[in-house]
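Milestone M4 deliverable, item 7.
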Amino acid sequence: MGCYDCCMKCLGGVPYCSLVATMLCFSGIALFCGCGHQALTETERLIETYFARNLQDYITLAYLIQYFQYVIYGLASFFFLYCIVLLAEGFYTTSAAKQTFGEFRSTLCGRCLSSTFILITYLLVVVWLLVFAFSALPVYFFYNMAATCHTITVLTETPASINQLCIDARQYGLLPWNAMPGKACGMTLSTVCKTREFRLTYDLYIAAFAGAGITLLALLTYMVSTTYNFALLRYLGRKGIGTRC
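Output delivered:
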């Protein structure tokens, strides 16, 4: 066998669908976790500086932000390991690998493992759909804030109407209703929108939202890949190509 044929067989044994999903998953999780973690930190600073004067008003929010940051650490670790495992499962069950390594057998353990991965990946897709929707909420909040600031800029010649334009953090559940001031109005709100913290936080939330979408796409790709792998193993099992564990 020549070097070219050997290389072609090796490349033919690569599960490209799982490989693409792994790359998407790594990039999506990196965006979501990295940008989301920093965005939460910047959000706490904005609330502390412009929307709350008393520590007791935002202490609950600070604890929630800290909790979500720990969750982000766990998500990053879990998805890194899970993507590696799914990629290894893709290498194991790809039909090209069967042709390359003649000792390949479709075992009962292999079919059970593939069906388990299908179930886990399906559950992850459902859960991540909720995460994806949840990650859109801060983007919506900052979008409304930026839109209100744009309106204030347009109406600078009528100060009376400007002061009626406000963003109330209490309406979004970020602060309790007795928090003071709890909102920013008029030129104060316009000043907030011009700060580096606001622009950075807004961009970070958009990046985290995009990362959540990329991760969802990766999970859907994994689900297609694992379903195909399971169908392949069942087909081999029906053909009698190895049924022992």
